Amino acid sequence: MSRKKTVKGKSSTSSPTTASTNSKSDGKAGKGIVGSEVQSNGVVHPSRPSLSNSSEFYDMAFKVMLVGDSGVGKTCLLVRFKDGAFLAGSFISTVGIDFRNKVLNIDGMKVKLQIWDTAGQERFRSVTHAYYRDAHALLLLYDVTNKTSFDNIQAWLTEIHEYAQQDVVLMLLGNKADASQERVVKREEGERLAKDFGVPFMETSAKSGLNVELAFTAVAKELKHRSMKEPSDPKFKLQDYVNKEMKSSGCCRS
Ligand SMILES: Nc1nc2c(ncn2[C@@H]2O[C@H](COP(=O)(O)OP(=O)(O)OP(=O)(O)O)[C@@H](O)[C@H]2O)c(=O)[nH]1
């Protein structure tokens, strides 16, 4: 199956909110996320729910960005999450940046995630840099069948520290966990790296759907918790939540 990946060359220096859209995106829905209806912490007043352009009410909205080397599966992960489908077949690299929206029900609240799919290729780095500062969360992907993509994680983290907000929610994902024959990065290596950098971690598969929903839900929960937090609230621990969910579903050892 062939597929078209976004072309957003003209938006390279514009902010995410002014970027143009294409048929793959949720179009103008992206424009609703910032401005008057969303506070700087991403929260929309709960007593006054907002209507996104995808015609779905939400209580709060956040921006999530997918980053990592070209070919690790960022677009496929997003498509799996949004549409429940896998983009098999020839690989066409993303050009620039694209976004899609999804509203999740998190503990009785509607949380809208505006998810930005960035191009992993080096030549688009300056385009994606412009988007980091607005991201509330980053999903950093490597490909368990590609050692270079794993080795590059440290460089990605350096970039993230340089361009993203200091308190950005970050999670490391080892994607393509379904590809056991081609695997060259062990789950334990991913766990160790994540531990060294103090980042939550899990393996995913856009192909099988393994942990895809969980990755986005965990991030949405963390963001919601942060923005609603009362001083007396116990701290939400993203990695603990992920571990608990994986254990209870018994799903996630590849
Ligand atoms: N086996 C397997 N293949 C995958 C998975 N996710 C993506 N792929 C394949 O990997 C290739 C690259 O996937 P993309 O989602 O386009 O990669 P990307 O990270 O968006 O790449 P750029 O747009 O260049 O940054 C495609 O051929 C996909 O079919 C997965 O979970 N398992």
TrEMBL record:
The keyword Glycoprotein does not apply. Its main location: membrane. Keywords: GTP-binding, Hydrolase, Lipoprotein, Magnesium, Metal-binding, Nucleotide-binding, Prenylation, Protein transport, Transport. It is an enzyme of class 3 (hydrolase). It comes from the Eukaryota. One of its GO terms (molecular function) is metal ion binding. InterPro entries: P-loop_NTPase (IPR027417), Small_GTP-bd (IPR005225), Small_GTPase (IPR001806), Small_GTPase_Rab (IPR050305). Its EC number is 3.6.5.2. PROSITE patterns: RAB, RAS, RHO. It catalyses: GTP + H2O = GDP + phosphate + H(+). Residues 1-50 are annotated as: Disordered. It holds the Pfam family Ras. Its cofactor is Mg(2+). Gene3D superfamilies: P-loop containing nucleotide triphosphate hydrolases. Belongs to the small GTPase superfamily. Rab family. This is small monomeric GTPase. It comes from Anguilla anguilla (European freshwater eel).
